[in-house]
Amino acid sequence: MADDQAKDLLSRRYRVMGHHSPLFYDKPLHLVRGEGVWLWDSEGKRYLDVYNNVPHVGHCHPRVVEAMHRQASTLNIHTRYLHDNIVDYLERLTGTFDDGLQMAMLTCTGSEANELALRMARFCTGGQGIIVTDFAYHGNTEAVAEIGTGFMPEARTTRRVKSFPIPDAYRPLDGLSGEALAQAYADRVQQAIDEFHADGIKVAGILVCPDFANEGLLDVPPGFLEKAVAKVRQAGGVFIADEVQAGFGRSGRHFWAYQWYDVTPDIVTMGKPMGNGHPLAGVVARPEMIEAFSKEAMYFNTFGGTPVSTAVGMAVLDALEEDNLMQNAVTTGAYVAEGLRKLQRKHELIGEVRDLGMFFGVELVKDRATKAPAQAETRRLINLMRDKGVLISKIGVHDAILKLRPPMPFQTEHADILLHTLDEALTQLTEEVTA
Asked: How far is CA 77 from CA 83, 145, 282, 301, in A?
């Protein structure tokens, strides 16, 4: 009966959403409840969530739910009226950034935030050219689809976007390493700048995710980003950091992933975890940029930064602090990384383990010497994990990197379940492949 109900729901979904609206897993999962790091399906089976960064402080966090209910029961208006919530929240939020990033504009989604950042960068620099990696994803509006070199058809025809190879030390450009590799990737950014100039297009900026998450949570050659940003700024452009995946303490020792580098962005975009599932996102930038842009553009968003949204945002910051989740990202993150590297020594399929706080990338290869991507094996593995009650996903140019990005309350006891289940699944997969 349950299978029949699932098939009926899937058929109805196809009718109203089309056959190409993405779904996880070969057998789609019908979820009905969440709490902390756990999810339950319609049959009552419990799953450990090792993928979703939207419920940043945990699914249905009581503090967040209560803040949302309390404010929604009192007042919800847009930002063209005065209200304490938005000012209190933005004062606290901007206090987490480096000096110079002291002013913000709120949106509903990361896509909106990135589009607003592009508009601001182009307005303030007078340029149009944007530089991204050659496997970028930054949202779904037309403007950010144009920079979506990893997935979006708009990126194939635009003249306003140039890309450079993903800065990957595991599959290095020209077989280089160290300082030479960092310089080689930075030179590719300079090549993009030169191509813009040859086309008569002024550079507006470079936009990257500081942890290069969609590219595979890369092991970035030290010094690359600093060199690349210096070249862009010399050409009159700005640096936009997309913190939608890496921000709000996920990287552990820093609140923002860009703080791992020796360069401060001109604009930072945020989304997903900002509202723990409530649609809250935004842009933080240098005040002179926001003042100049908004003087001409009169930015306004009906649902961006309402009293309810900002009450939720404040509750997320409270939970991060009061539940000590940044420190947990350091300690539990190190525990998970150590466990994954033990599995790497046991299972030849694991080519490299990468980690940044509570974020992990496990690259699977058919052969460690050739680094041939194990694409089919990766797909099979995430489905085996789903069947065994642990939810993960995959990323990367070859779709052969396990993406592990659990809610921040993820503890060592949860890590033990992940590691044990992954060991079982890898063993089963190896037996299938060699049978």
From this structure: 9, 30, 18, 11
One DSSP character per residue, 193-244 reads HHHHHHTT--EEEEEE-TT-TTTTS--PPTTHHHHHHHHHHHTT-EEEEE-T
Alpha carbons 415 and 339: distance in angstroms, whole number: 8
Name the nearest CA neighbour of 192 among 150, 155, 144, 160: 160
d(CA 69, CA 87): 20
Rounded distance between C-alpha atoms, residue 207 and residue 125, angstroms: 14
- Element (DSSP H or E) covering residue 359: none
105 close to 90: Cβ distance less than 8 angstroms: no
Residue 154 DSSP class: G
Torsion, Cα of 340, 345, 351, 357 (10° steps):
20
Q: Give dist(CA 92, CA 56) in Å, integer.
A: 18
Copy the structure tokens of residue 418.
Answer: 């992940």
Q: What is the pLDDT along the chain (435 residues), one digit of tens a residue?
A: 467 888 899 999 999 999 999 899 999 999 999 999 999 999 999 999 999 999 999 999 999 999 999 999 999 999 999 999 999 999 999 999 999 999 999 999 999 999 999 999 999 999 999 999 999 999 999 999 999 999 899 999 999 999 999 999 999 999 999 999 999 999 999 999 999 999 999 999 999 999 999 999 999 999 999 999 999 999 999 999 999 999 999 999 999 999 999 999 999 999 999 999 999 999 999 999 999 999 999 898 999 999 999 999 999 999 999 999 999 999 999 999 999 999 999 999 999 999 999 999 999 999 999 999 999 999 999 999 999 999 999 999 999 999 999 999 999 999 999 999 999 999 999 999 887
Residue type, 299: Y
Strand partners, 38: 35, 48
Strand locations in 73-169 (E): 103-107, 129-133, 161-164
Apex 420 CA angle, 418 and 423, nearest 5: 105
